[in-house]
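Notes from the 1:1 (GR / supervisor)

We went over the backlog. Supervisor wanted to see one worked example end to end before approving the batch request, so GR pasted a single chain during the call. The sequence is below; no edits were made to it. Supervisor asked that the structure be written out right there so they could see what the output format looks like.
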Amino acid sequence: MQEQWINYGKQYLANTYNRFPIVITKGERCWIWDMDGRRYLDFLSGIAVCNLGHAQKDVVESLTAQAGKLFHISNLFYMEQQIKAAKILVEHSFGDKVFFCNSGAEANEAAIKLARRYSWKKYGADRYEIISMENSFHGRTLATLSATGQTKFQEGFSPLLSGFTYVPFNDMESLKKTVSNKTCAVILELIQAEGGVYLADKKYVRKLREFTKEKDILLILDEVQTGIGRTGKLFAYEHYDIEPDIMSLAKALGNGFPVGAIIGKDDVMQAFEPGTHASTFGGNPLASSAVIATLNTITDENILKNCINLGMYLYKGLQALKEKYPFIVEIRGIGLIWGIELSIDGDPVVKEFLQEGVIINCTKGNILRLVPPLIIKNEEIDIFLEIADRIFERQQKK
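Structure output shown during the call:
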């Protein structure tokens, strides 16, 4: 049965993913099941999306209740759920206003447009360039692809949009040398997750924030993957004692329901006026109900404390494996986002994990990325570590 559906998928779906050869039909907390009834421990969370785990009760109930009333109306009207969702985000962040959309790429697209329009209104048409980091990832639309500092994602899509420049990550001097009178914004991931789980240095981020304020350059933080509790704080910028001008969110914002957003300061967000930007489905009643339930659960149920405690528990276990297996080069991360850098190819290791009933993925060819749900328990981490030990031991014997 499962093989038949995989063949149908190959026949009817665009070939844009290297998919795992299983068909997922059900999920609960940190576990998912395939069509044949086999259970898997999910250390990928839909790529850092299901931070509260699968089929989380409050999100399910909120979506079900809303679905019985109103799916969609349009942003030509005020919507109670959308206003409530925006209020929660503002009350728990640096920002004053929220714009809702559908995805991380769309959120970053909105942030790029907002930065350029803000600068256009204040300084005129010649101040439009945006600096991003080498090894960054900001999405797959043409604008966000142009902002992404990895050529492998850009190949075959030229010409890219002009006005984007890349500088080395964590290198303040290179950034200062690159800034010109045409620079309107800097876009930064505090953790380059797709790039291999590299963390921004705290001194670098603080100096960057001081410098951008001094030059009246907007600071955009891409928290699509790090936001909504993934690092042990609701937003990763809270670890750095700074505030951005604009922040993009998506992935875990609706715990699996497609929704994105940007949050910004009042003086910046005023650059968006009626007719300058829009999103047909952005923040509709269904999406907003998922946002409300997700945020209320994460902020009210000690999820962040669990993320910190279990993240440290996982880190200690990973460090023990590093000491045992010399092909583990480095362990990087914070909260419940971790990268295991290997000196060997990571893809075969990911396949072995799948065979053992654990879902992880590999980025950059040799870095295993772990992003389990924030509700994970000690015993589930123990299961992962036991399986990892067994797999790494086999790798060492090859």
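Supervisor's comment: Residues 134 and 149 are 4 Å apart (CA to CA).
Batch request approved.
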